[in-house]
């Protein structure tokens, strides 16, 4: 199977996370003062973006700027290095947004929306920052004893301030299986109650503790549509920062074709032939690559499929464009 990982939005992070050296507090302190250090402020988990040369990119701050925000080094999250320049993220949700000195000229955009116009590398950095900041905001107190926690390792571990407890809390990633199920020249698409009219996607669900990826695919497909699958193959993966999932894309062959839906999970599921998937994918684009524009959904189409930002789009595309692999 060809390497399609770079097709997936949020999967193109090239920062060197420096997992060993970031444990050194002195090294982190020196990186904060690096003359080319880049600081990414997140406002209510939204990201700062700017236009540059007729395209969009992340608006980073430099060290002089962040001193205005009065941010403690303990609140900085080290994201990684690129060309030996350090990247940090920090939360500014508590800061007065009416302070023009701090906010003048910065546009904050929801990460998923920003990803539709940014380079995949920038989108991937935002995904890392969003997941890490969300985790940090939810782990200010020890889940074991309730005392406050303190950041170490460049913000990649929170440790309980009670020395008798000393509980270490690491960022979590939640695995989700997302799978295209096919039978000969048809594949299954499903619709959840919160989807727009005529909008369908492939099936997905969380992997449970103690469960393999293959078992999760088998279980989720059977629970949602009462179809048994075989020949499960891995396709690609996608970090999904809502809040911190890893989408594990798979393709599986159905053993039976009679769909019986679980009405609590989905409202509709159906077999769709390859040609219709191909034509619907061509239309599965947004109106413009501008994050400030609203998404336009044409409800007159019979079948609306996810846009390229979603791994579901690439699973459908790969299956539809390569019939020789899926006989
Ligand atoms: Zn504790």
Oligomer: single chain
Average pLDDT value?
Answer: 91
What's the number of structural domains?
Answer: 2
- Count of individual beta strands: 15
Low-confidence stretches: 287-296
Helix content: 10-25%
Shape: globular
The biggest sheet, with number of strands, parallel, antiparallel or mixed sense and barrel status, is: 6 strands, mixed
Q: Tell me what portion of residues adopts beta-strand conformation.
A: 25-35%
Under CATH, the topology of the largest domain is which? Nucleoside Triphosphate Pyrophosphohydrolase
**From the helix content, strand content and strand pairing, which structural class follows?**
alpha+beta
CATH class of the largest domain: Alpha Beta
Question: What distance lies between the first and last C-alpha atoms, to the nearest angstrom?
Answer: 15 Å
Order of helices and strands: HEEEHEEHEHHEEEEEEHEEEHH
What's the CATH superfamily of the largest domain, by name?
Answer: Nucleoside Triphosphate Pyrophosphohydrolase
Individual helix count = 8
Radius of gyration: 22 Å
- Small-molecule components bound: zinc ion
| CATH-derived architecture of the largest domain | Alpha-Beta Complex
């Amino acid at each position: 199977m060809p390497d399609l990982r770079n097709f997936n939005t949020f999967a193109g992070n090239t920062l060197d996370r420096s997992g060993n050296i970031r444990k050194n507090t002195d090294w982190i302190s020196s990186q904060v003062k690096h003359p080319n250090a880049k600081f990414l402020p997140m406002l209510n988990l939204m990201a700062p973006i700017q236009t540059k040369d007729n395209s969009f990119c992340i608006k980073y701050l430099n060290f002089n700027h962040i001193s205005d925000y009065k941010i403690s080094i303990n609140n900085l999250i080290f994201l990684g290095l690129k060309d030996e320049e350090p990247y940090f993220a920090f939360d500014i949700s508590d800061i007065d947004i009416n302070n023009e000195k701090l906010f003048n000229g910065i546009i904050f955009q929801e990460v998923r929306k920003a990803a539709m116009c940014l380079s995949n590398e920038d989108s991937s950095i935002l995904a890392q920052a969003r997941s890490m900041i969300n985790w940090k905001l939810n782990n200010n107190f020890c889940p074991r004893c309730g005392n406050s926690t303190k950041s170490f390792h460049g913000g990649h571990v929170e440790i309980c301030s009670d020395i008798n407890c000393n509980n270490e809390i690491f960022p979590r990633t939640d695995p989700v299986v997302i799978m295209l199920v096919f039978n000969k020249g048809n594949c299954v698409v499903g619709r959840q109650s919160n989807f727009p009219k005529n909008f369908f996607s492939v099936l997905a669900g969380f992997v449970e503790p103690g469960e393999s990826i293959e078992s999760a695919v088998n279980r989720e497909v059977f629970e949602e549509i009462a179809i048994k699958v075989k020949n499960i193959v891995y396709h690609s993966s996608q970090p999904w920062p809502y809040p911190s999932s890893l989408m594990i894309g798979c393709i599986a062959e159905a053993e039976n074709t009679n769909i019986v839906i679980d009405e609590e999970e989905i409202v509709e599921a159906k077999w769709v032939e390859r040609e219709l998937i191909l034509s619907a994918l061509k239309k599965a684009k947004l109106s413009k690559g501008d994050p400030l524009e609203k998404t336009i959904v044409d409800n007159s189409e019979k079948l609306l499929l996810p846009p390229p930002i979603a791994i579901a789009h690439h699973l459908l595309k790969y299956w539809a464009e390569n019939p020789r692999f899926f006989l």
